[in-house]
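Batch manifest, entry 17 of 40.
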Amino acid sequence: MKTLGKQDNYAFIDGANLHRGVADFGWKLDYARLRTWLSEKYGVTHAYIFIGLIPKYKELYTHLQECGFTLIFKEVVYDGSGKPKGNCDADLVLQATRDAYENKFNRAVIVSSDGDYAGLVKFLQEKDKLKTILSPSIPKKCSILLKRTNASIVYLNDVKDKISLRNKEKAPIKDEP
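Output type: structure tokens
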């Protein structure tokens, strides 16, 4: 078993929820700045992004890895209208729970507004393993189930100056997971 440092925290990011939440505000996320901010603000040493695997987004996946994220892919299925579905919730919960039981991190940062993670948040709180929730949505759209956990919730729109692409910068690639 490894010895954990004081700030040896892990981030567990619902990629689709992050993308949709930020896009709803009309600004673009700078993934490199996000990764740096997670490290500096929350002591994140390892950041997972759970994301559906769609071959046409391979440049995005490469960019995310270059920014320091570990990608956990979910096989995508398509609904009747051809819209991709790659629900990663169970994979994120399983990875966070496994890593908690294996004592791989001190505290977890959960990046999502999805109430499906309320059970995970409660589990992490019971184990004194939760640092915070980072919500890509506004307070009104963040799940009441997450709010009822009484966990610390930071709304990404409130810190967009730290994690958004600057006006002069161009997005390296189209970032639609």
